[in-house]
Design goal:
Elements: E1 4-11, H1 28-46, E2 53-59, H2 64-70, E3 76-79, H3 85-98, E4 103-108, H4 116-126, E5 133-137, E6 143-149, H5 169-179, E7 184-186, H6 196-208, H7 216-224
Parallel strand pairs: 1-2, 1-4, 2-3, 5-7
Antiparallel strand pairs: 4-6, 5-6
Helix pairs in contact: 1-7
């Protein structure tokens, strides 16, 4: 197993079960197709990182064969397990640290334009013995990336007493880190696509990006539905 593991949290894109906050203006089938484009482009993008093994933490439990048929052969897989987001994230760290990874970062599947330099920075920071964890703040008050290195007994605290899916997530996570003597570093702020406003922002950003290899499926699909935005 590679020392650096980058894990993408992903839910199989079924209409009515993914990106529901984008409906309307999108139909459920369009939201599911956009989620599929996000996933493919995000995986393709982060697979360019050197010395990093890309993993997909999938749900539902029986969806691994479908992900394997969709994504590159280089991707590794493990199931999400837990009753809330905090448990699911913590269990990923536990599973991969037990499997000999020494630095693990988790991100969502809806960040197809995230600068690779930000993710490289996360792993570089985690090489420092004085850095226990890294966080990538997101514009909605949460984080788009969380990483940690193996060995700190206080790691589970980062996932306790957090009001998930609220604007308090980042603030409360940092409070937990201070309470349990976890040394946290921040990488630059970015955003994931949860709202129609986020979707419009991404569409404008991709139009301004000269490299057509950046999120090509997402770019193409957003162009097709531009009249809805």
């Amino acid at each position: 197993m590679a020392a650096n593991a980058l894990v993408i949290f992903a839910k199989w894109p079924l209409p009515g079960q993914v990106k529901t906050r984008l409906c309307p203006p999108l139909r459920p089938d369009q939201a599911a197709e956009l989620a599929r484009c996000f996933l493919l482009d995000t995986v393709e993008r982060v697979s360019r990182l050197e010395e990093v093994q890309v993993w997909v933490a999938f749900t539902p439990a029986d969806s691994e064969p479908r992900f394997r048929a969709l994504l590159p052969a280089s991707v590794c897989y493990l199931p999400q397990r837990g009753t809330d987001l905090g448990e699911r994230e913590l269990n990923i760290f536990i599973d991969l640290f037990e499997g000999a990874a020494t630095r693990v970062a988790i991100m969502g599947s809806d960040i197809p334009s995230v600068p690779l330099a930000y993710l490289r920075s996360a792993f570089d920071l985690l090489k420092n013995p004085d850095c226990d964890a890294v966080l990538g703040p997101s514009s909605d008050g949460g984080y788009y990336c969380i990483g940690a290195q193996a060995g700190h007994a206080g790691l589970p605290a980062l996932f306790e007493h957090i009001e998930w899916s609220t604007e308090k997530v980042m603030q409360q996570t940092l409070q937990q880190a201070r309470l349990h003597n976890l040394n946290v570093r921040l990488i630059p702020r970015w955003y994931d696509v949860d709202t129609v406003e986020d979707m419009r922002k991404l569409a404008e950003q991709l139009q301004d990006m000269p490299n057509e290899d950046d999120a090509p499926r997402t770019r193409s699909f957003l162009e097709q539905i531009a009249f809805l935005l």
